Amino acid sequence: MAAVESNKDRYRFRFSLLHPRNWLTWAGLALFFIVTLLPMSLIDRLGCRLGNFAASKNRKRFNIAATNLALCFPEKTGDEIEQMTFRHFQAQFRSVLHYYILWWRPSFIVRKKIVKTGFEQIEVHRSQGKNIIILLVHSVGLDFAGPAITLDYNTVAPYKKIRNPVIDWVMANARMRFSSRHGGKLFTREDGLRPLIREVRAGKILVYLADEDLGEKNSIFVPFYGVPKATLPVLGRLAKSCNAVVLPCVSCYEPEQKRYSIKLLPAIQDMPSGDDERDAANMNRAIEQAIDQCPLQYLWTLRYFQTRPEGEASVYE
Known about the structure:
The protein is of the alpha/beta class. It has one domain (3-297). It is 45% helix and 16% strand. The chain has helices at residues 3-9, 23-35, 40-57, 59-72, 78-96, 99-104, 107-112, 120-127, 142-150, 165-176, 194-201, 235-242, 276-291; strands at 114-117, 131-136, 155-159, 185-188, 205-208, 220-224, 227-231, 244-254, 259-264. The strands form two sheets. It has a seven-stranded mixed beta sheet, with helices on both faces. A hairpin with a 2-residue loop joins strand 6 and strand 7. Helix 3 crosses helix 5 and helix 4 crosses helix 5 (78-96). The chain starts with a helix and ends in a 26-residue tail after the last helix.
């Protein structure tokens, strides 16, 4: 079955999700729903407490985040890195508890929780005959960038499956909740790039994440905060194939306002340049600029530097 055809039915509810092996997940979602009845100020406090607990108990992820922060912010002291790591865990768990807004609240509530800046660029570039690729970074509130885009635009995006089938179904439908009204689609990595290119050429906006370390195969090493990072040289090729400009985007939670600020930054200059290494370096610099909007809300618990240049030891040991 073609990817475009399979997309239509891929994320529909199926009775196998009610199998007894999934009951614990459903019970967890029910408990989560009860928590969402609390005022948002209490939910935020609970999320920060859960973050502190997770940071204390999950030393493996804590050390990954601390290592990433120390590599990217070498001017910080050890004590500062530790405090930054705790604050990151607080931000991460706080945003996880905000998923209920995306899952169960009506669209007018979702809109109230989002403030957008820089989105006027989309029509400006379209008026110049360009298609649009939005380069989204892995901030803890990245899922709030989704409705900021999909509520008003026809989009297409790659989607990484989650092992738990119930959570996979919930997350996929949350990401398609508003995009489906415009005909938006998700594609998995197994679908390849061709469906994405075809949809963008037809006028859809591609929402693309490119900051993970996906291994040595097909990657090149370019700086990320001054540290060599295995980077897929794909974005420049996509921009060329789609005749598109690339607009970096980041989602930042504003605790005092109890809302997410979704910032669309200026288009990456000299993209595509025709040189994979140059495009990859330009992309990483743009990702850095997006992260700097709210650095502690970047998802530092991922192994961004897992793949090392030949002869270099792992930074996570």
